[in-house]
Amino acid sequence: MEQPTYATYWGGFRRASSLSHAAARTGELAWKQPLPAAAAGQVRHLFMWDQSLVVDAPSELLTYSLDGKMVLQKSKAYGSSPVGRDAILYYQDLNNRLTAINQRGETSLTNAYIPESMSNEFPVTLLVPRTDDFVAVVQYLGGPHGPAPQVYAEGVKYGDRVSIWEHEFDGTQALTPLFIPEIGQLVVFPADIVRIDALTGKLISRVPVPVENPVTASADAAGRLYVTGSVKGQPMMIALDLEGKELWRWGLPLSFARWNDTQPTIVGDDATVLAVTSNSIFIRKNESFTLLFESKDAPARFAARLADSSLLVCAGASLYHIAASGEIVYQFDTQDIITAAPVVASNGTVFIATRTELLSIR
Fold first, then answer.
1. Following DSSP, what letter does each residue of 261-284 receive, concatenated?
2. Is the distance from CB of 284 to CB of 274 less than 8 angstroms?
3. I want to staple 189 with a disulfide (CB 3.0 to 4.6 A). Which of 115, 169, 174, 237 is the partner?
4. Residue 327 neighbours by CB under 8 Å, 6+ apart
5. pTM score
């Protein structure tokens, strides 16, 4: 099954934050560009799309060549996130319809309905484009005088006004939905954990979320979930199998504050698990966790595991490249707070965004 890249799902739809490339190890600035006014202070996500870099701000998307030249700038539905699949980029236009463009900005799909997303009161929290159809999760936010909040999960053929299949759940989502392409499952969290066959729409299972005050969820390629939250007041991570049965749990030492709400648990392709707190990263080895990295000066907001098992960590205005051993390869200091998780091109170049600039590091 195709595996698109998705801005909201840093490191992939499974939110595993495991990237397929290694980063260059020099830590030298290659170039920097000021962000345009429409994106300054608002960049939420970066991701690679073919050989372009996509910059996602709430109401704008921008694409850059790898040498720092802006190629495209498009307005979109506020808060929506673009999706790249092969050479096509999908996004919601200002009318909340689905649009698709190529690298030159030429339109290949326009004015396509996302059946339950009629306005900004119905944000799309997951969009998975496929060859002939797409999967979407939509959250109706509700209102003081309108219906109660609802969560919609649906499969839709491009151009149709009605869905092929649809599920509706009461309330708001406890966690951001996941898509596990390796097994074709959609996972939504309307108070419970609901698994859905993304091809047929069949509801596979529904089990309770195992933690109080859930913070993040991520999945590995086999479909196991890693959910963070608290149990009886203690920060806790719980791993679940495909049937929702607990595999193990780990209580975060209270001295390490809290779970990181901007960076879900990192899961490597080799089943390595990295727990990310507000200021530290722990690695699971031999069925126990040990401290790998701790940020002393600023909260660690974003992290990613690379193909060589090293890490990129963003803390405050600094980017750290950390070897698998925990040794710091380099520390790159910017002049402003880093606002989005870093991405890595196939040639090892690292891209980061601050509130004012887009930077390339080699």
1. SSSPPEE-TT--EEEEBSSEEEEE
2. yes
3. 174
4. none
5. 0.93
